[in-house]
Fold this protein.
Amino acid sequence: MSAIHVADLEFKLMASPGIWGGHGTMQFRWDRRIPWEVLLVLPTETWHISRDTLTEGVDFADGDGLIYVRHVEEGVEIVLASPKGGEAVLLFDRDDLLDFLDMTWQVVPAGAETIDIDSGLDKLLGRAS
């Protein structure tokens, strides 16, 4: 299995409170070498979110800062704030999101996340490993 898993998930964009406007696709990227992180990628910006926060938000509400995830009747809303200003509310299909997350948990279960500090420091300091 590849170290990186990518899923293109469809979303609806909230035009104004309670009214869904456009739609699009967001890329969800997960790397087994950095298992606690999921990248949410649009052509113009990338957000980093913890896998735990994304998982919690599927059924409840979680997040802070630039990303907030919450379960709603229609699916799962992800609220993205931009450091440049502005905010977007995206609605995702709950089952699609769960399929993506389930795969990540099967590859690296909760509590099995590890980090190789020495290799990370070697890369940071430009030393061969």
Remarks:
- Residues 94-107 form the longest helix (14 residues).
